[in-house]
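Render this sequence as a predicted structure.
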Amino acid sequence: MQTLNDRTVIMTGASSGIGAASAMGLAARGANIVLAARRTDRLSELESTITAAGGTAMSVACDVSSQDDVTRLAEKTVDTYGRIDVLVNNAGIMPLAPMTKRRIEDWDSCIDVNIKGVLYGIAAVLPTMLEQKSGHIVNISSVAGRKIFPGAAVYCATKHAVHVISDGLREELAAQGKHDGNRIRVTIIAPGLVATELSNSILDDETRKQSSAYFASIGTPLESEDIAAAIEYAVTAPDHVGVNEILVRPTRQIR
């Protein structure tokens, strides 16, 4: 396993859930953590928690659906720490509803955050990683990127896009690495049901009730720390090991 001492990690969606748990776990292993999210009050609290425990962290207000915000995030990271070793594209929303309800604003938001946000993150860090000839891009997808659920067609489509983008980028970088020597890795983390605030982005009342009933039927969900452990495993693997995808479900989740 690699040490993370002096490695710099950008964590989007860091204000709660998987992002917060992962930031704390990676900071405990010695990484410099750049916390990015819209809720700056929560970022400040998390930054204080990390630094009080002896870690290193910096907060940056960032809306991943804004390319300018994401570009500034990468620039500030390089200005402060001199490099970008890991990007965890974690920010995401899940505004579920049947397509027949034509919640077009929800569709737009889902695409802006879940697809464009991932692409903006990749575009922002690649120049630095290519110059370094090293780096690791971790994209948080979902089991919904592999399965289609009723009432979740658009969300599933965005997460399928994350899988396609990630594996396409991995193949391109691996091929390029044969010529320029880069060791940039790409990992997809695909969680099943996790006990986070993600379901708060379900704005359709009927769908929220149905989703709550489905979630309850699964029993004990994953915790954010379970996914944080998967991220930690991927980014601390030796340089010659490419952890391409990790799919993690609660034991009782069938689909």
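Summary. Strands lie at 8-12, 32-37, 56-61, 86-89, 134-140, 183-191, 245-248. The mean pLDDT is 95.
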